[in-house]
Amino acid sequence: MSDGRGSVLRAEDLVGGYVPEVDILNGCSVHVDEGELVVVIGPNGAGKSTLAKAVFGLVDVRSGRVLLHGEEITGDSPHQVTRKGMGYVPQRENVFPSLTVNENLEMGFLAGDSKHLDSQAEAMFALFPRLGERRRQRAGGLSGGERQMLAMARSLMSEPSVILLDEPSAGLAPQAVADVFRTVLDVNESGVTVLMIEQNAQRALTIADRGYVLEGGVNRFEGPGRALLDDPEVARLYLGG
Ligand SMILES: Nc1ncnc2c1ncn2[C@@H]1O[C@H](COP(=O)(O)OP(=O)(O)OP(=O)(O)O)[C@@H](O)[C@H]1O
Ligand SMILES: [Mg+2]
User: Fold this and answer.
1) How many domains does the chain have?
2) In a domain, 81, yes or no
3) Residue 4 falls within a domain, yes or no?
4) Residue 2 within a domain
5) How far apart (Å, rounded) are the C-alpha atoms in residues 177 and 84?
């Protein structure tokens, strides 16, 4: 397994939280190598979303550091982090419901002329055909699964090298869950490195190269997806097995 040197994304011993003196992250570390799909699982309140927010510059990091392509980005704003090549899809409210699919994609576009914008949007419609069929519809009228795909597509408009996905399958019907997981794999196979948080642990670990189990803001287990699935303690504690 990789030791994480030369990783696309690396979070080291993160401590931090939302208000002073209350740490939610208590020294957790993750890394994602070029081309990997890495999954973070753990119980409700484990700090999974907080970890993503800390990496993306939305939560105060009191100690530890975040590296993107080896460059320290700890404390950078989300805007700076986006410009440096990271995409982030939050767990909730990740599309603008009153805007159309096209307009949502435009919001994720960072720079370039309208021709570049159009070609980027077309690239998204190739990856997410259902969005192409609905490009002039408002996001609020999409199904849950389509909305998650739009959120992912929006984050990809800035051509990131790595994206953070916070529970893309949350609250979806079984068929939509399958579609979203398939799409995450497609995105990963298109060359985007992925760090995905999921409560659908079994399924997520099945498609992951590696996984982490987070609890109480620290790493409890880590390893290849298959190894975590086969670990009796992980199964008993976190997979309902
Ligand atoms: N904006 C906030 N302000 C203060 N505390 C927060 C905030 N968001 C989350 N917390 C607290 O941080 C802790 C970890 O929350 P977090 O959302 O990171 O958990 P999670 O692992 O993502 O859980 P879930 O599986 O339910 O999404 C919880 O105790 C939560 O109450
Ligand atoms: Mg969460």
Assistant:
1) 1
2) yes
3) no
4) no
5) 30
pLDDT score, position 6: 74
Residue pair 11/33 in contact by the 8 Å Cβ criterion: no
pLDDT in tens, 184-208: 999 999 999 999 999 999 999 999 9
In a domain, 204, yes or no: yes
DSSP string, 188-226: HHTT-EEEEE-S-HHHHHHH-SEEEEEETTEEEEEEEHH
Which domain, by its residues, includes 72?
A: 9-238
Q: What is the tens place of the pLDDT at every residue in 113-123?
A: 788 888 999 99
Residue 111 Cα, ligand 2 centroid: separation in angstroms? 30
Name which residue sits closest to atom 17 of ligand 1, judged by CA: 49
Neighbours of 34 (CB within 10 A): 14
d(CA 55, CA 153): 20
CATH of the domain at 214: 3.40.50.300
- pLDDT class of 5 with cuts at 50, 70, 90: low
Helices (H), the chain: 48-56, 78-83, 101-108, 114-127, 129-133, 144-156, 174-189, 201-207, 225-230, 232-238
Q: Residue 41's pLDDT is what? A: 96
- Which residues lie with the beta carbon below 6 Å from any ligand 1 atom? 18, 24, 42, 44-50, 91, 199
Given a cut of 90, is residue 38 above it in pLDDT? yes
The Cα–Cα gap between 44 and 201 comes to 12
Instruction: Report residue 232 as tokens.
Output: 């009796």
Helix or strand or coil: residue 13?
strand
Residue 96 CA to ligand 1 center (angstroms) comes to: 23
